[in-house]
């Protein structure tokens, strides 16, 4: 395991002050940490990140930290500082003066009253990169509203195209099974921060990044947004079907369901041959992608009964042999235990400072020269307060004890 005091990776030497909590901001900061940045996570004394209590399940080590918290906070040091106190705000400003990046997700204007906003901190450190993550952004009529993943999935239009059609059993809008809005915003935040770092490397200039959950989720509408903007088509819920390519969904076999996802006409020719109905590929209703989508129900009337006679394993083996995309719907345990995931080294074992084991899903990018590293497990709240204040700001043990006594900072909860 890499020495946590000597991080390596493409971002080695970069310092991040993480003032965020819950998921989008911490997700961004964790990725920066995986890539070698030194990350200091700032939490509220006596409380910590909200997600520490978002369970069950919880880690059975006395901290009662939730599994949810553990997914987004490795490779960080945790300190607890009361930013509402003048002394606490002074400490954060001193840490920001030594940082390259600040990440925060307070409501618009929420940090200005403490002198921790971009205008104040950039006056102290002009080349600072300051990323603000909010529900709706720093401008616009909804700028002062709070935003959560579920709310934004609905407002952005994602739920209007997710789930079964209204006229089917179980029909209606459905959120994604993971917090896709928070995660995508964290990804966009990381991309934005890295772009700002490159600009700073060229010009010496820092800047403020204004990132909204709603903007990020609307950006992910991708082909569905383009279909409306450029074709006037109002997207609708189609269950597991694809709006423009067919077949691209789940099919019932004799002993379960199999996914078939074809992306072109050549693959359809091969599937028709595999299913024993090669003439389908010459039928003008199905020969090209657009016609297959327009006549999907007629196509399904032919192929669904044939697929229903196969077993799942036999069909998947036949699809693999024909080099056609197909597979099962895995559970999360099945996915994490999949031989391909194991071969790619996606699950990592870490340990907290008391030896408590923690498993994490790693960074997916495989760097040939500067790989991601997994140096420290997600920290207990405030476990590094004294060490950080001493090492980064030069405070003595007596000065730290006085701050603890005054309630300005807290040590491990």
TrEMBL record:
UniProt GO molecular function: transferase activity
Keyword Metal-binding: no
UniProt entry keywords in alphabetical sequence: Transferase
Family annotation (InterPro entries): CoA-transferase_III_domain, CoA-Trfase_fam_III, CoA-Trfase_III_dom3_sf, CoA-Trfase_III_dom_1_sf
Segments crossing the lipid bilayer: none
Signal peptide range in chain numbering: none
Listed Pfam families: CoA_transf_3
UniProt keyword Lipid metabolism, yes or no: no
PANTHER family: SUCCINATE--HYDROXYMETHYLGLUTARATE COA-TRANSFERASE
Protein name, entry field: CaiB/BaiF CoA transferase family protein
Gene source species: Novosphingobium aquiterrae
């Amino acid at each position: 395991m890499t020495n946590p005091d000597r991080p390596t990776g493409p971002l080695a030497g970069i310092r991040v002050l993480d003032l965020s909590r819950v998921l989008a901001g911490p997700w961004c900061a964790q990725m920066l940490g995986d890539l070698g940045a030194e990350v200091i996570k700032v939490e509220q004394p006596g409380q910590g990140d909200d997600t520490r209590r978002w369970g069950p399940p919880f880690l059975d080590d006395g901290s009662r930290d939730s599994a949810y918290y553990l997914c987004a906070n490795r490779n960080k040091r945790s300190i607890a500082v009361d930013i509402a106190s003048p002394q606490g705000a002074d400490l954060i400003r001193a840490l920001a003066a030594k940082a390259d990046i600040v990440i925060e997700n307070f409501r618009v204007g929420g940090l200005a009253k403490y002198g921790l906003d971009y205008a104040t901190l950039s006056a102290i450190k002009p080349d600072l990169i300051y990323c603000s993550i909010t529900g709706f952004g720093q401008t616009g009529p909804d700028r002062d509203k709070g935003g959560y993943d579920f709310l934004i999935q609905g407002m952005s239009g994602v739920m209007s195209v997710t789930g079964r059609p209204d006229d089917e059993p179980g029909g209606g809008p459905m959120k994604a099974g993971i917090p896709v809005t928070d995660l995508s915003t964290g990804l966009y935040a990381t991309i934005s921060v890295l772009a700002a770092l490159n600009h700073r490397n060229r010009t010496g200039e820092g800047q403020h990044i204004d990132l909204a959950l709603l903007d990020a989720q609307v950006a992910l509408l991708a082909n569905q947004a383009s279909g409306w903007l450029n074709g006037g088509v109002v997207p609708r819920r189609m269950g597991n079907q694809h709006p423009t390519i067919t077949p691209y969904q789940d099919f019932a076999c004799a002993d379960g369901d199999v996914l078939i996802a074809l992306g072109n006409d050549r693959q359809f020719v091969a599937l028709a041959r595999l299913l024993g109905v090669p003439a389908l590929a010459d039928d003008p209703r199905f020969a090209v992608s657009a016609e297959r989508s327009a006549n999907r129900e007629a196509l399904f009337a032919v192929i669904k009964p044939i697929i229903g006679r196969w077993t799942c394993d036999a069909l998947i083996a036949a699809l693999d042999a024909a080099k056609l995309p197909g597979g099962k719907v895995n559970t999360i345990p099945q996915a994490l235990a999949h031989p391909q995931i194991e071969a790619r080294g996606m699950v990592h074992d870490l340990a907290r400072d008391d030896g408590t084991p923690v498993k994490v899903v790693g960074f997916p990018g495989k760097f040939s020269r500067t790989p991601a590293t997994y140096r420290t497990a997600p920290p207990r709240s405030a476990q590094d307060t004294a060490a950080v204040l001493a090492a980064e700001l030069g405070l003595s043990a007596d000065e730290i004890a006085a701050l603890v006594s005054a309630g300005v900072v807290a040590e491990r909860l």
